[in-house]
Structures
1.
Amino acid sequence: MKTKIFETTKNDIEEASRLIQKGEVVAFPTETVYGLGADATNESAIKKVFVAKGRPADNPLIMTVADAAQLDEFVTISDQARGLMDHFWPGSLTIILPIKPGKVSMLVTGGLQTVAFRLPANDAARTLIRAAGVPIVGPSANTSGKPSPTTAQHVWHDMQNKIAGIVDDGPTQVGVESTVVDMSISTPIILRPGAVTQTQLENVLQMKVIDATSTESVASNVTPKAPGMKYRHYAPDKNVVMFDELDALDLKQVLAPNDVVMAQDDMIEKMGLTKRQAWSLGNTLETATEQLFAGLRFYDDDSQITTIYVQKMPPIGIGKAFNNRLGKAAGNQEFQN
Ligand code: AMP
Ligand code: MG
């Protein structure tokens, strides 16, 4: 299959939406990462997504909609869940809700009685979904286990000739996947940290939200087993090691010629690294998160490189999501001097 590249013009998006209506898979931009779009009501189309990604069948898919009204057919929405949608959609929050029996394919739910929904904050994505006229499944458009794609070129790298098309809208803004919150149970639980934080959710809900991904809740044994959590995620083939700001100068001492560093600009300067040795994570938590997967993918494809050292961020705001993805990419390896 020859993968066609689409721009975000009206004609191109309409052509891409017709492919989705025909049961084909088209990758599309969102503000978080690129997604793999297919008609969520067509099982043969959904199967193609699993094949293209090489994804295990019991790992459920997110359903992506252009309008919150599209949910009513599939799920029961509590007032609290409605409050989150009103406040955070369109945006980087995926909400897990109880399904109406028989309304959602087992391929989407992974056999669970729940389904995850998101309304992305990207115009091309919403235009595409609206034109297709159905909710579309939208898992990240990477080969299963690899870092998620933040550019159309990343998607092309993993998906060329495996899917019908890619809608190119340039680099994504957030750079990591959406926050996933389970609203199908009485106490909301964050299953994946993202741009929408625990504090923001608590402020809107006016109730306690558990972060299943924080060390605190893992220690107190309240961690639920979210389906995706058992699979290796976001990991390049190269050796990835995290380092702390305080260890930067020690790291510089032992840096081998084939090692590279991903760090913020002040850190790159402090360590006196050359352009070839360093990938800039910019100056803020937001720029660091936006650049994380792009840097990992770039060095993963460079046969000269042995180890990628990546600076940890302070665990505030989106820094938690950054450290969560970095921890997975590094298999939690930390630099020790
Ligand atoms: P991705 O497919 O890369 O966008 O990731 C989607 C994430 O949401 C995976 O970690 C899934 O396991 C998780 N997920 C999707 N649907 C559900 C669900 N119904 N219950 C729990 N987790 C879910
Ligand atoms: Mg993914």
2.
Amino acid sequence: MWQKAIEDALQVTARNFDRFGDRFPHVSEDGKHYTLNDNTEWTAGFWSGILWLCAEYTGDPAFREQAVKTVRNFRSRMDRKIVFDHHDIGFLYSLSSKAQWILERDEEARALTLEAADMLMKRWREAPGLIQAWGREGDAENGGRIIIDCMLNIPLLFWAHEQTGRESYLRAAERHAHKSRRFLVRGDGSSYHTFFFDPQTGDSIRGGTHQGYRDGSTWTRGQAWGIYGFALAARYLHSADMLDTAKQMARYFDARLPADRVAYWDFDAPITPDTKRDSSASAIAACGLLEIADQLDESDPERDFFRGAAEASMISLVRHYSTHGDPEAEGLLKHGSYSVRGGASPDDYVIWGDYYYLEALMRLERGAAGYWYERG
Ligand code: GLY
């Protein structure tokens, strides 16, 4: 089943070379066609990541050539600092230049990825002890704000520390992860999307949301970023606490899935026949569950639980949410939502959903774990 789903995804991706040209897909707005940009969105790395996954799986130079072209484009984005004022530099460069380094040991790709880590470090704020997600330093609203999504950006810093031995990367990533664990994750394993601190003193102010149903609700994709992000932090830090948090968040996620095991957009949104799903949240969570399972001993009884939960959701995504290689389809996964709250692409293709769906399939099919960390 996984192999067939990967073959379908390869076909859609190969057709997208011509459709997208040198541009980058972001989300659909009509449920059919991706909006394209010139590498200006926070999501551009996911297209690069999809191309690298396809290149790695097939060994086909056509996929590699497209992937390398995207890395050149990321070089140019770095040189011109195009839309760099945010923490998503981690997403952008982990799946583009870092992927090329991991697969090919290309020194220029490594150097570009280290430049990206330095750019992300510019967002480290010493006084409150956090990586500022959005806005410029001193920004009145965002100056002391963290976002759970950042847990997928800090692997870039953990990696840069491994590569260079520079403690500053590790210190920032580790402190940010601990702050996120303490303030974004609640006692029952649910999560805030975002949390505010006083930028001068670091005093905690309040939790809130940006894309969720309400301030105290659990935005499904945020929960999924947490599951995968804390699992990755556990791997880099060899931390049982981080792994426990990832597991706790995963259990919360799993226990609240509807019968078809694909999450609605927020765990606290009222469920009606019109309530939107977020298939991307389930794809991200599947990667996180598989990452957790990978870190558990073969004799650990929870290993089967986490792997089984990931498989069950992936079976549903493949059967009921994928485009099955439809020749007209531009996306791999239907029914993602960008921001139901904001009315932006509430029931659409979202390129990160496609990326994590393919990463999860590759993990299931051959144990290939994406490009968040060096292969063993
Ligand atoms: N990181 C932005 C989002 O998940 O929408």
